[in-house]
Amino acid sequence: MKGLVLLFPGIRYTVDMPLLYYSGLYYRQQGYKVVPVSYGAQFDQVEFHNQDITQEIEDAKTYCLPQLQAIDYSKYDSVIFVSKSLGTVIAGWAQQTLQISCKQIYLTPIKQTLPYMDSSCMAIAGDADQVLDPAVLKAYCKKHDIEYHVFPGGHRIEVKKDISRNLKTIDAIVALL
Fold first, then answer.
1. What are the tens digits of pLDDT across the range 156-169?
2. Looking at the 3D structure of the chain, how many domains does it have?
């Protein structure tokens, strides 16, 4: 089987951060081609503290669209999008806009992602996420029959100063892939 995984980063959460890094590593070891999606260097300085990020979403869509259009998805038996935070919106939009048949794995989706989520995706979030209330996400996932997993932690899922717990969480998330 020939597979492709696209990694969609979040704001200030690059593909070198734990959740995306280990997801990419896992899929590489399974023989998938792993492609990081870029939104441009302008995203290196963007802050995200529950403010309106409508413009950032539009900028990311515009910047990454040529990258996404350049891929021949028909060459792959399996296509998976793994996305984090802002990247969940971009991944959902890309699947819909380009009509790509893929599995979506949404890591800490934000409210703008909800319209793209359906029963074919998986959502993973922190139980103390301050960007999208975990109760709202849980209810949405239940209503739409979406596979949902919750872990201790905030929007990054990682817990400050608890490396052992973070490693266990990452291991558990990779096991879900």
1. 888 778 889 889 99
2. 1
Residue 102 lies in domain: 3-176
Number of neighbouring beta carbons within 10 Å of residue 10: 28
* Verdict on whether the full-model pTM lies above 0.90: yes
Report the distance separating Cα 45 and Cα 6, nearest Å.
23
For residues 147 and 166, what is the distance between their CA atoms, to the nearest angstrom? 22
Amino acid identity, position 41: A
CA–CA distance, 37 with 70 (Å, rounded to integer) = 12
Q: What is the CATH number of the domain that holds 67?
A: 3.40.50.1820
Encode 121-157: b = buried (16+ Cβ within 10 Å), e = exposed. bbbbbbeebebbebeebbebbeeeebebebbebbbbb
